[in-house]
Every structure is written in structure tokens, then in C-alpha cells.
Design goal:
Keywords: Methyltransferase, S-adenosyl-L-methionine, Transferase. This protein is of the alpha/beta class. The protein is 40% helix and 20% strand. Helix 8 links the parallel strand 4 and strand 5. It is elongated, with a radius of gyration of 21 Å. The structure holds S-adenosylmethionine.
Length: 292
């Protein structure tokens, strides 16, 4: 491992990649590129076209510090302070989950219904339970211009971050952040209730990948003894907040399809559709009111 990083762009990128690769980081080329581009304010094209471009000493120092954090196990997006989700750059903070690409499956699952509702009624009211960075709500707002969304979270830090993300994506006028324990402070009825709740059984948290266990907030992960606690609350209480023809879409752990379906069926819903994620795992269930 080189002790001193070079002060020109191409060699700097190469040295960063080599440091991460030597330490066994899973995707050293991508992580090195994200870190170097972020802290130097350069692009991929510049690294190729202008490899001799000088990089200021303080920028090299910032990259060095970021690489050390990555080598200590911190996920690259926590170091950068943001993650892309559905084409939106979303800021992260200590109490927000890093939004995952698999959660885009939920956005895709409800998007046709949200668009059709907005077209038919001129509006579509969305409730995003456990909004975190605001990922699901903001992705839907970005795709459905007539929609409005309320993002609920128990974490004030998450709500502050979601609000900031709404402002930075130009969606603040249609987004409301609400501090609430699930439905406790929610008013009104919604056409879409979406949730990616915590769904890891408490006893499994210790076995998660280090990057998840050590850097994602446990309140965003821990779904209680069997991981199903939040689904029971949502299924039991959603009816008062759902429009008659509305839909509930929940992200699930890949082994939870049958249990979550049974919870919602017992509460008076039928499974309208199930979706798999990019890896082919069960990931999203969409329910509507009525018998199966
Ligand atoms: C798995 S994260 C999902 C975050 C975001 N929706 C996403 O998909 O990236 C679950 C979220 O639920 C929130 N949460 C946990 N318990 C809650 C509760 N009782 N009421 C409201 N939100 C809660 C957490 O703070 C966290 O932001």
C-alpha cells in the first residue's frame, strides 16, 4: 500500500484503487472512482482525458482520509454522504437507511397505479411509512407530477434529511414530513400507502453483513422478534387511512412472502400482485381491500 497518494488525477485514481484492492474491498474500482470523483469534483471522462490534471494537496488529503474510512469498513455511500435512488441524489444521515436498489422495485410496483390515479382524479395522495431519506415518496413524486406525499418516520433526524432531500430535488412543494409512530399522527385518506418497514428479526441483526450491522441504524432494520411486527401494525391500522380503491405496497424480506400475505389477508386485504427484485427474490407485495 502506497503511503503517499499522487497529486495527479490518473495516478491518484490508480493508487486509490490499488489500496482498496490490496485490502480486499469488494468493488475497489467503483469505490475508488466514487471517492476520487466526489472529493476532487472531477468526472470519469476527465480521469481518462486529463490523467495529468493536478489535484490540490488538501483534496488529496481528503481522499486519503476517505480511503482510510473505507478500509475501516465504512460503506462508500456513507463516506460520500449520499446515494442515488431512482435517479435522485439523496443525502444520508446517521438515522437514515441507505436506500437500496431493490427498493426501486416497490416504486416500479406502484407507479402505474399512482400515475393512473393522478390522471383519473387529478391527484394521487401517497403515504410513505418509515420514509428514511424520503426515497420512496420522492421517487414517486418525481415520476408523478400531480402526486403529493406524506413521509412518516419515528426519527426526527430522518425527517430532517427527507425534508432536505425534498428541497434539493425540487419536490418540497409536494412533500410533507410527519413525525409519527406509524399511523399515530396520520390524518386523512391516501390512494397509496407504501412502506419499506424494518423487517429483520431482532435476533438476526448480529449476523448481518458488517457494513449493514455497523452503519445502518438499527431502528431501520429491527422488525421485532420475528421481523413481522411493523406489518402487523400496518395491516391492522391501514383501513382508516386508505381510499376505498387504494393500494398498500410493502417491501418484504425474501423469505417473508407467505407470512406477510397471511397477515394482510387476515386483516381484510387480498394480494393484488407480488414482485421480485433485481436478484429474482420476492421483494414487494401489493394489497387491496377485499377478500382473496
Ligand atoms: C427499512 S427503513 C426504510 C427507509 C426508506 N423508506 C427506504 O426504503 O430507504 C425503515 C424506516 O422506518 C422507520 N421506523 C422505524 N420504526 C418506526 C415507527 N414506529 N414509526 C415510523 N417509522 C418507523 C425507521 O426510522 C426507518 O427510517
Amino acid at each position: 500500500m502506497a503511503d503517499t497518494l499522487p497529486g495527479t488525477l490518473g495516478p491518484l485514481l490508480r493508487a486509490a484503487r490499488e489500496r482498496l484492492a490490496a485490502a480486499g474491498v469488494a468493488d475497489p474500482a467503483l469505490d475508488a472512482r466514487l471517492i476520487v470523483e466526489h472529493f476532487s469534483g472531477t468526472t470519469r471522462t476527465q480521469a481518462i482525458a486529463e490523467p495529468q490534471k493536478a489535484v490540490e494537496a488538501d483534496v488529496v488529503a481528503a481522499i486519503d482520509a476517505a480511503l482510510r474510512r473505507r478500509l475501516a469498513g465504512e460503506p462508500v455511500h456513507r463516506i460520500l454522504g449520499y446515494r442515488e435512488f431512482y435517479g435522485l441524489r439523496l443525502a444520508l444521515s446517521p438515522e437514515t437507511l441507505e436506500p437500496r436498489p431493490d427498493t426501486e422495485t416497490l416504486v416500479e410496483a406502484v407507479l402505474p397505479f399512482a400515475s393512473e390515479t393522478a390522471e383519473r382524479l387529478g391527484e394521487c395522495r401517497i403515504l410513505d411509512l418509515g420514509t428514511g431519506t424520503g426515497a420512496i415518496a420522492l421517487a414517486l413524486l418525481s415520476a408523478v407530477p400531480a402526486a403529493t406525499a406524506t413521509g412518516v418516520d419515528i426519527s426526527q433526524d430522518a425527517l430532517a434529511t427527507a425534508t432536505r432531500n425534498a428541497e434539493q430535488t425540487g419536490l418540497a412543494g409536494r412533500f410533507e414530513a410527519l413525525h409519527s409512530d406509524w399511523f399515530a399522527k396520520v390524518c386523512g385518506r391516501y390512494h397509496v400507502i407504501a412502506a419499506n418497514p424494518p423487517y429483520i428479526p431482532s435476533g438476526d441483526i448480529g449476523n448481518l453483513q458488517d457494513e449493514v450491522r455497523d452503519f445502518d441504524p438499527h431502528r431501520a432494520l429491527d422488525g421485532g422478534v420475528d421481523g413481522l411486527g411493523p406489518y402487523r401494525i400496518i395491516a391492522a391500522e391501514a383501513a382508516r387511512f386508505l381510499e376505498a380503491q387504494g393500494k398498500i405496497a410493502v417491501e418484504i424480506g425474501h423469505t417473508q412472502r407467505n407470512e406477510v400475505k397471511d397477515i394482510f389477508t387476515a386483516a381484510g386485504y387480498r394480494l393484488a400482485r407480488a414482485f421480485v427484485d433485481l436478484g429474482g427474490n420476492d421483494r414487494v407485495l401489493v394489497f387491496e381491500q377485499g377478500k382473496p
